[in-house]
């Protein structure tokens, strides 16, 4: 058990970097930014797998060793408990007066009657009765024991921990988790959980290929944030509609639900969490031939206090406007800049003074040229490729601050208009069939722990012997493995109950017995009489 405790401590220590450093499984962008900001130290951390703590070889090694240690510890303890449950309580010690708790009384009942009274009072105890074959010849001895639930609770607790580890490990094979940004307005399309490609990011266990996701659809109608006067968010609320199957019916006929932080939508074994929010500006680009392109894209909050946000947008010219592919690549439009939900200007410098969208504005650079839409590679949705700007493939044509409805016109006649902004929400869809088992085994651990702390292992012995012509002497002795004071109250209750049943006269202990009793070591006595 000592080894298991050490490994459990090491597991807790090994998890600390996972809480202090960004993890790839949660945000690859934050990991890349950390490595870029910290140079060789970030690369060194990466080689140590500190950005993949919970899937690293060293964390897995500690996890597996803890599992093996628990199995090796619990197996012999379980066998020993079964043997103890099958064994009879031990014989009474020769001198009961030396036990931590001792009492004696005389009664006019016969030894058999007195022994029957004692045995009847020990209902619920495991009792062993010896008629004349105990350690003191000619006496009737009773040995009683209870409190095995303490060891049972201890073992149940550790088995709960063992199976909890198994459930966590199994969950890594069968879980699925996806993140999706959804614009919070009634014109935005519904999101349906049909394929991993429907998500902005998706990760799953080794046994999940994404072809068997729970089918459902979600339509986000609005999003509301309640703020305190100092700008601190008090509550996030999104009214949504959902269907428990993929359907083409009118979303207005779907079931309504109010999605809040820590109040996920539960659809079968799938949970939909409200993870975050932000703003998505809308721009309309009118090309020289009169055709327009309108798009709404989420921008990334750079200041979580005021929600000043940054981002980009890219627009491709209309098909047929530039028959030559090279000319077409040179006419793509890119927008990069800042969005302020409640604008504040210091000259031409835009900032935000409050996170709610009361007076929105943008400060943007408008670029024209090759925006990278046709290069076939992955593109960031929050920043333009600096290589394109440095090479001259993408040139800045305007720098301007715009309020909703305002526009700017490029030298070739292309117009860029800021139409306003909508809020977006970030939802997390999680499915883990082992979660219910994690809860069950956690409850088992708590139950076992409570049982092991509340129950005391204790023993009581009674020796009945003839004391004179018409008297019977009954000696009682009690011993608890732990919590001597708590057991003392129970022993006194038993003694008083027996004295009430029989016409009993207390027997004062002899001085030598009293001294021995006061000096007795209960743990030593327990060990002496454990067998």
Please give the number of β-strands: 24
Over all CA atoms, what is the radius of gyration? Answer: 38 Å
Mean of residue pLDDT values: 85
Largest sheet: 7 strands, antiparallel
Count of alpha and pi helical runs: 13
Global shape: elongated
Structural class: alpha+beta
**Total individual domains:** 3
Strand content: 25-35%
Task: Report, as a whole number of angstroms, the end-to-end distance.
Answer: 23 Å
- Poorly predicted sequence stretches spanning 5 or more consecutive residues: 511-531
Which percent range fits the helix content? 25-40%
Q: In a nutshell, what does this entry contain?
A:
32% of the residues lie in helices and 33% in strands. The protein is an alpha+beta fold.
What attributes does this structure have?
33% strand; 3 domains; 531 residues; alpha+beta; seven-stranded antiparallel beta sheet; 24 strands; Double Stranded RNA Binding Domain; 13 helices; disordered C terminus; six-stranded antiparallel beta sheet
Description:
The protein has three domains: 81 residues, no CATH class; 133 residues, Double Stranded RNA Binding Domain, CATH 3.30.160; 256 residues, no CATH class. The chain has 531 residues and is of the alpha+beta class. It is built from 13 helices and 24 strands. 32% of the residues lie in helices and 33% in strands. β7 and β8 form a beta hairpin. The strands form five sheets. Strands 4, 6, 10, 11, 12, 20 and 21 form a seven-stranded antiparallel beta sheet that branches. Strands 2-3-22-23-1-24 form a six-stranded antiparallel beta sheet, with helices on both faces. It has a five-stranded antiparallel beta sheet with strand order 13-14-15-18-19. The longest helix has 30 residues. α1 packs antiparallel against α5, α3 crosses α4 and α7 packs antiparallel against α10. It starts with a helix and ends with a helix.
């Amino acid at each position: 058990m000592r080894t298991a405790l050490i490994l459990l401590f090491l597991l807790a220590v090994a998890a600390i970097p996972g809480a202090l450093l960004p993890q790839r499984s949660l945000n690859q962008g934050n990991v890349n930014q950390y490595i870029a900001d910290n140079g060789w130290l970030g690369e060194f951390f990466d080689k140590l797998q500190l950005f993949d703590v919970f899937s690293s070889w060293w964390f897995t090694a500690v996890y597996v060793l803890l599992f093996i240690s628990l199995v090796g510890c619990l197996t012999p303890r379980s066998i020993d408990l079964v043997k103890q449950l099958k064994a009879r309580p031990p014989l009474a010690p020769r001198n009961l007066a030396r036990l931590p708790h001792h009492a004696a009384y005389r009664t006019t009942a016969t030894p058999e009657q007195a022994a029957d009274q004692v045995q009847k009072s020990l209902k619920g105890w495991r009792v062993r009765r010896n008629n004349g074959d105990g350690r003191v010849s000619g006496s009737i001895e009773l040995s009683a024991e209870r409190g095995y639930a303490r060891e049972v609770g201890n073992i149940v607790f550790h088995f709960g921990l063992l199976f909890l580890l198994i459930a966590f490990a199994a969950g890594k094979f069968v879980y699925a988790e996806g993140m999706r940004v959804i614009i919070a307005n009634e014109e935005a399309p519904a999101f349906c959980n049909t394929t991993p490609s429907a998500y902005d990011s998706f990760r799953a266990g080794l046994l999940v290929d994404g072809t068997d996701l729970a089918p459902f659809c979600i339509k986000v109608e609005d999003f509301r944030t309640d703020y305190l006067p100092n700008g601190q968010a008090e509550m996030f609320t999104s009214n949504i509609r959902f269907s428990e199957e993929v359907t083409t019916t009118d979303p207005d006929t779907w079931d309504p639900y109010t999605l809040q932080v820590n109040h996920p939508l539960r659809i079968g074994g799938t949970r939909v969490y409200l993870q975050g929010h932000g703003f998505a500006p809308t721009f309309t680009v009118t090309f020289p031939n009169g055709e327009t392109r309108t798009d709404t894209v989420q921008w990334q909050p750079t200041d979580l206090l005021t929600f000043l946000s940054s981002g980009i947008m890219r627009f491709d010219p209309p098909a047929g406007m530039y028959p030559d592919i090279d000319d077409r690549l040179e006419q793509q439009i890119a927008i990069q800049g800042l969005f302020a939900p409640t604008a504040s200007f210091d000259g031409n410098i835009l900032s935000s003074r409050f996170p709610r969208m009361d007076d929105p504005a943008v400060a943007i650079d408008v670029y024209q040229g090759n925006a990278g839409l046709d290069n076939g590679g992955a593109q960031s949705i929050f920043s333009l490729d600096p290589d394109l700007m440095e090479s001259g493939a993408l040139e800045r044509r305007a720098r301007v601050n715009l309020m909703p409805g305002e526009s700017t016109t490029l030298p070739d006649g292309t117009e860029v208009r800021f139409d306003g902004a909508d809020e977006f929400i970030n939802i997390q869809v999680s499915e883990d069939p082992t979660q219910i088992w994690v809860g069950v085994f956690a409850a088992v651990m708590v139950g076992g722990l409570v049982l092991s702390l509340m129950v005391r292992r204790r023993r009581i012995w009674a020796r009945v012997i003839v004391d004179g012509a018409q008297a019977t002497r009954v000696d009682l002795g009690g011993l608890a493995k732990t919590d001597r004071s708590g057991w003392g109250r129970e022993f006194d209750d038993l003694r008083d109950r027996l004295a009430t049943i029989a016409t009993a006269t207390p027997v004062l202990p002899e001085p030598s017995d009293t001294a021995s009793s006061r000096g007795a070591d209960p743990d030593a006595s327990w060990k002496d009489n454990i067998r």
